[in-house]
Amino acid sequence: MSSDCLGCKGRPIKFTEAANAAKGMVSILRPVERATGELIEYRAKICRDCPSKVRKHNMDFCGKPFHKTDTTCGCVVWAKIRVIKEDCPQGKW
Asked: What is the pLDDT at residue 3?
């Protein structure tokens, strides 16, 4: 565990979770896996206003980057909102 993780809420994402996240991000390249423009904008607005959003390294994350909790997933928001089968861990979309 890196010093960045000490004292953080939640836990670092497991390798299998990271692999599934990478698979989800790659799926945005396939048209059948992509959300529509309207759905992306809907999700983006909700995430933009979410108090759980964390800005780090010039990117927005759902909570602490790459850490999963009961209410956040640690995903890169830009990619997550574009995959049709993804959902918000707080049930907002």
From this structure: 40
- Rounded Cα gap, residues 71 and 37, in angstroms: 25
Residue 43, both tokens: 């999700």
The predicted structure's pLDDT at residue 2: 42
Other beta carbons within 10 Å of 60: 19
Rounded distance between C-alpha atoms, residue 30 and residue 77, angstroms: 18
Q: Which two tokens stand for residue 64?
A: 């602490």
Six-digit token string for 30:
């396939």
45, containing H or E segment: helix 37-48
Write down how long the chain is. 93
Measured over all CA atoms, what is the biggest interatomic distance in the chain, rounded to whole angstroms? 40
